[in-house]
Amino acid sequence: MQTFIITMALIANLLVGTISDSQTQERLAGVRINSNHQTIYTDLDGNFTMAVDSLDTLSLNLISYSDTIFVVDDVYMSKNQNINLEK
Asked: What phi and psi values does residue 22 have, to the nearest 5 degrees?
């Protein structure tokens, strides 16, 4: 079983983070991140920056990994987060 690790912080409504494979710690390029307002992809180093609002729904997708959906709430806005996505 493989999972992603997402590390992120919210700075002035910008969600900044990195997505990695939890088993290999390899950063994952090309992860698609959909919000209520936009779609972005992680860069070659697995990094992303996205403008978000509280209660936006984010969907993360990458071939061979399970899709993950979560809501940006005050918890995500107050500190860095690690989110595991399973294969």
From this structure: -70, -25
